[in-house]
Write a structure and sequence with these properties.
The structure is a homodimer of 117-residue chains.
Chain A: H1 4-14, H2 17-29, E1 34-35, H3 36-43, H4 47-59, E2 63-68, E3 71-76, H5 78-89, H6 101-105
Helix pairs in contact in A: 1-4, 2-4, 3-4
Chain A binds a DNA duplex (30 and 30 nucleotides) through helix 3 and helix 4.
Chain lengths: 117, 117
DNA sequence: TCAACATCTCCATTAATATTGAAATATTGA
DNA sequence: TCAATATTTCAATATTAATGGAGATGTTGA
């Protein structure tokens, strides 16, 4: 169960341009994750900046890292994201979620185009 | 479609204790909303502080207000919340959403206990 | 073992944000 | 119209966060 202070850290982390882009890239990448250097290239940000933001995200519990050789691979913490959303939307519409459910049909985790599994 | 700068404003707004509490109260209250004063009482925050945070949330597009007599009623902008979540989760798991879908079953907009409509 | 690579840490500077109380604005009912 | 109510605006202060560069750390392959 997500507590308020963890949710605040998560939202603070997501409120910074570089960090939001990192998370969106990692959401797209899925469990396999991406190395810090690849993220840095995509964002055109120096290593010191990347390190600062990646550890901010890790502190906030939104990503985790593992070393693979000389690279550090970051991947999104998907339970933290879902917990964050659950925390935000808890008890929506005073127990009548059908009021806002339609709005959330579009927000579900869905691919751009059909994919075979 | 949510753009990055709007998402950044929304997350920044949600990253402050008082504002996060306001949004959660308004999510629970649903479309009918709550007056600024009632929110201030619940949060035990002075009127100037409340006004600052409420207008921050309104600027960010997360809530809207209407005047009713001498009160200003605030209500959550539910499409903004769903758009924000969609933006964050876009293209998750590289087109194989079944990877993270289970995590999101728990995050859906559901009531604490069953409610008759 | 050494050079190259990948990333992190530290520090100084700069910028953005929240808080407080007092005063201003808008609305109502007597 | 006037006093009471509800909320906003303003300005000074206090707090917190982001940036950039230099150097440190850990890892690999020759």
């Amino acid at each position: 169960m997500m507590q308020e202070d963890r949710a605040l850290m998560a939202f603070a982390s997501l409120s910074q341009e570089h960090r939001l882009r990192i998370v969106r890239l990692l959401v797209e990448a899925g469990p396999v994750g991406l190395p810090a250097g690849v993220l840095g290239d995509k964002l055109e940000a120096g290593s010191s900046k990347m390190s600062f933001h990646l550890s901010h995200l890790e502190q906030a519990g939104l990503v985790h890292s593992r070393r693979d050789g000389r690279q550090i691979i970051y991947a999104v913490e998907i339970d933290a994201l879902s917990g964050l959303i659950a925390f935000l939307m808890q008890d929506c519409c005073g127990g009548r979620p059908e009021i806002c459910a339609p709005a959330f049909a579009a927000a579900s985790c869905a691919p751009k185009e059909s994919a075979d599994v």
